Amino acid sequence: MSRVKSYREAAETAERDRFVGFSFAGGDLLIETTPEGEIVFAAGASVSLLGVNITEMFGTSLASWFRDPYRTILGSALKASLDGVRKGQIVAQTRTGEQVELSMCSLPRDRSNVYISICDRHDVAGQDGETENLRFVDAAVSAIESDRGETAITLVDLSSPLLSDEEAGKDLQAELDLVLRSYLQANAVNADAATKLPSGQYGFIHTAEQDIADIVSEVEIIAMSLDPAMRNIRVRAGSLPTADLRENKTVARRALQRVLDNVCKEAFSGTGEKDVSAMFRASVEATQGRMGQVARMFTNHEFALHIQPIVSLSSEEVSHYEVLSRFRNGQSPFETVAFAEDTSLIQDLDNAVVERALKAIGQGLAPGPGGLAVNVSGVSLQSPAFIQRVLDLYTGTPEAAGKFSVEITESAKIDNLEQVRHFVDRLRQAGIIVCLDDFGAGAASFQYLQAMDVDCVKIDGLYVSRMLSNGKEYSMIRALADLCRDLKITTVAEYVEDARHVDALRGLNIDFAQGFYYGRPAPLEAQSLPKPAQQSALESEADPSRNDSFIWSSDPVKQG
Q1: Alpha carbons 456 and 474: distance in angstroms, whole number
Q2: Kind of pairing between the strands at 151-159 and 512-513
Q3: What is the DSSP track for 2-28?
Q4: Spatial distance between the Cα atoms of 183 and 215, rounded to a whole number of angstroms
């Protein structure tokens, strides 16, 4: 053997040893195979994971050490790995019944073989469904914005009488779910690009070359390999090239989530045959059209502002007014705002409302000495540009000092609480009063209260409306009032309809009240003040659904 050859072999051995060492940092077993799956190298815990000695693995097929239908899945994953992109989190079951997780890739400079890292699945921390879906949507947005090769988003739906069986269907569904997830992971562009959606359908992002008919056929084969009775399974799927989404600019996370939800709800309901891909495209076009309409409405200020009084329970005097929005052409306030939050357009509305409210204060149009409170979405509060604009408008309106407040709504989840806490501190330092709206309506209320320093808490109206007939709601309001008093935070109760509510709330030491008892919303521009409390109390017996001015509550009959 020549000296040059021995040096080369030593270098190759050292390189492989380093590669094995790095791989063991994230896995328990390393395998190298040909594109066809023949094992040419293996090192690690083969006995505990696959039930076989390393020496017995050389020259065998990777698939031979796994159960059906994972053999088909791994074959598909090997082919997909030759593109140089790492495939990860592929769960498979070995011949001995162990569940393992595989990651595989080919080297960019040499794609002749595939390198596979295997670890015990119990060593891998799982993630909750919400986090998984957020990562999937983020992966889809990245694929849409990327120019590195064309991809497609495919939704897959499965239905079978066997799966509906309460006894047999539950275990079979769990096994099918595991196998199908492995198939999707094996064919997805990356580890985050496959998920099971909340609606029950599966979604994954893959290269555009994959044919949807092949995907349906392979899913059917996978299902039947689990149980012959699954031969009557119905698989429906639809795809949309990410290029179509790129052209329509529907790339915001919330907008894409809305499209996926709509398609799953409409395309896979019922028993009739539907062109899922066509419905996918139609949903994108409809969403884009609606986005343009709503954006123009917000930008052009095509909505009216109304105000509703917030009254001190100790003095019976108006403290300040909440600013509410009504949209033209009978558009639902709740639906419009929900759509705006889903498509990240809500900041345009919040900007417009803040601007008009502060302008009204500056021009002396705001009635009473207490000023105005505007609703601000959690989506907007996470924008540095929005916070700066509010501060600029506020400091540019000297008349607003001590007369302007913002109410943080919980209709959209705040993803970055630490950032919002910082922004809230900036608002309060500038002199803007900050209130948590609809407290108790959402799961994050106490989390927000713990994370942010605020001046006021507005108790959700559903608790107030039920407090006279349900001791549970009464006790919760009392506990919240005590907590806020300890934290030196003022409280506002909504849905105050009659004198009985007033007496009960006053007995609980609630500071302020709002509702039909003290006045209905009235136009701000016309400076039409709500009627006195006694007259408004008679109006409270009217159908509360008439009030369509409040845009932020998940309850369509909220009174403000």
Answers
A1: 19
A2: unpaired
A3: -HHHHHHHHHHHHHHHHHHHHHHTT-S
A4: 10
Distance between CA 70 and CA 344 in Å, rounded? 41
Burial class (CB in 10 A: 0-12, 13-18, 19+), 529: middle
> In what side-by-side order are the strands of the sheet with 234-241?
194-196, 202-207, 151-159, 234-241
**Can you list the alpha helix ranges (DSSP code H) found in 25-87?**
46-50, 54-57, 70-81
What pLDDT score does 525 carry? 66
Distance in angstroms (rounded) separating the CA atoms of residues 434 and 193: 39
Is residue 109 packed enough to be buried (19+ CB in 10 Å), middle (13-18) or exposed (0-12)? exposed
Q: Do the Cβ atoms of 326 and 353 come closer than 8 Å?
A: no
Asked if residue 367 has a cis previous peptide bond (ω within 30° of 0), the answer is no
Q: How far apart are CA 384 and CA 426, in angstroms?
A: 11
Burial 133-147 (b: 16+ CB within 10 A, else e): bbbbbebbbbbbeee
155 and 261 in contact (C-beta within 8 Å)? no
Q: Does residue 523 have a cis peptide bond before it, meaning omega lies within 30 degrees of 0? A: no
Of 328, 354, 320, the closest CA to residue 548 belongs to 328
Grouping H, G, I as helix, E, B as strand and the rest as coil, residue 35 is coil
39-44 vs 151-159, strand pairing mode: unpaired
Q: What is the pTM of this model?
A: 0.68
The pLDDT tens digits of the residues spanning 104-130 come to: 888 766 667 899 999 887 644 445 667
At residue 124, the pLDDT reads 42
Residues of the chain with pLDDT under 70: 1-26, 84-85, 108-111, 122-129, 147-148, 165-169, 229, 247-252, 271-272, 443, 525-560
Cβ pair 320, 310 in contact under 8 A: yes
What's the CA gap between 270 and 264, in Å, rounded? 11
CA atoms within 13 A on the CB side of 151: 23
- Structure tokens, 280: 């996918």
| Those residues with Cβ within 8 angstroms of residue 454's Cβ, 6 or more apart along the chain or in another chain | 408, 424, 434, 435, 436, 489
Give how far Cα 556 sits from Cα of 305, 469, 551, Å: 18, 21, 8
The closest of 43, 44, 91 to 66, measured between CA atoms, is: 91
Can you read off the two tokens belonging to residue 342? 């889903």
For residue 513, the SS3 value is: strand
Joined together, the tokens standing for residue 186 give 């094996």
Question: What residue has token string 């917030």?
Answer: 310
Look at the block and give the residue holding tokens 């390189």.
Answer: 15
Q: Please give the structure tokens belonging to residue 199.
A: 């609606």
Domains of the chain (ranges; CATH) run: 3-123 (3.30.450.20), 129-291 (3.30.70), 301-546 (3.20.20.450)
Classify strands 29-33 and 39-44 as parallel, antiparallel or unpaired.
Answer: antiparallel
User: Could you give the dihedral angle defined by the CA atoms of residues 480, 481, 485 and 491, in that order, rounded to the nearest 10 degrees?
Assistant: 100
In whole angstroms, give the CA distance from residue 505 to residue 69: 63
